[in-house]
Amino acid sequence: MTRPLVALGASDPTAVLRGLEAALAGGPALLPVAVDTPALPTPPPSHVAQRVALVVETSGSTGTGKRVALSADALLAGAASADAALGGPGRWVLALPTHYIAGLNVLTRSIASGTSPVVVPPGHFEAAAFADAVDRLDVGPEAPRRYTSLVPVQLARVLDDPRARAAATRFDAVLVGGQATPAPLRRRALEAGVRVVTTYGASETSGGCVYDGTPFGTVRVGLVDGALELAGPMLAEGYLDDPDRTARTFTERDGLRWYRTGDAAALDDDGRLRVLGRLDDVIVSGGEKVPLGAVERRVRELPGQDAAVVTRRTSGEWGEVPVVVTEQPLDLDTVRAHVGDLLGRAARPADVLVVDAVPMLGTGKPDRRAVRVLADPDGAPPA
């Protein structure tokens, strides 16, 4: 059996909310689409399997586009487990685009708790507009807690604005995800009294399913040769019209269905999950493997470098070398010493490229393909 798939522009969050309500109740499946960014090259199907309630288009910061198919059961299971992990249902401020899973998660959790989110106007994120939204956030006995979800660049803007920073302290939890949260940014938030919860997940897991390094609910973590896999009721059905990719990404093991995240990870001594970066984001420099994610985290520890990005550049001598792309001046010798002390000589950046603005995706993540072109215009692969 199938049901219709309705594409809906995500510039109207209220319309997306209503469409998602209908989809979760068994109506037409929903495909929220951005109106200001190119669609995937192939049109979506007119109908999807009956189990599919939501389709999320994603290209990620690397890789090719895909349409992730999610069931109502997966979305609602994720919402219920998240509420339990956070201390109960609450009312949300929506500050993220509703064609991405993190924004859709806010809508799903609002629907599940019977509340309506307060919406920050779509478009360029403004700290003042965020503070205005918090001022409109009333709670009731059915959902007495206050929540919001941000990406790191939004959190940085909130902390830079005194009124928005004060407003953020009123939340029971400020979820921060979409990419690794720099340690200095997290410390700034905690020192300001903002209760930050770092999240890890993907569209394929109905959004964040690991909070502060701990999987919630019945989510299971598996490490296969250092590669992170996740299992649980929140997993996607797969990818629309792409059975080969679905088979490569979702696997059966130990009686469970697992999602291969493509990330490298480790478990700390206390059992907390630590994500190390993309498995395919490792360069070989002078014969040594260098994980660019680890280099980037080290760079972001330096003052003013919360948003710095580390990419690769081809080198006739070394094969490939790390390069820092940043909006803030950074002394090359300083960053080389800081990185090399912990990660070794091969990990030391070969260059610092200061730009007016680091290219970003609509999710608030760096556009790593565009960053690579900036740092390596002759060696970067075509888009």
From TrEMBL:
<dbReference type="InterPro" id="IPR000873">
    <property type="entry name" value="AMP-dep_synth/lig_dom"/>
</dbReference>
<feature type="domain" description="AMP-dependent synthetase/ligase">
    <location>
        <begin position="41"/>
        <end position="212"/>
    </location>
</feature>
<dbReference type="InterPro" id="IPR045851">
    <property type="entry name" value="AMP-bd_C_sf"/>
</dbReference>
<dbReference type="InterPro" id="IPR042099">
    <property type="entry name" value="ANL_N_sf"/>
</dbReference>
<dbReference type="InterPro" id="IPR050237">
    <property type="entry name" value="ATP-dep_AMP-bd_enzyme"/>
</dbReference>
<dbReference type="Pfam" id="PF00501">
    <property type="entry name" value="AMP-binding"/>
</dbReference>
<protein>
    <submittedName>
        <fullName>AMP-binding protein</fullName>
    </submittedName>
</protein>
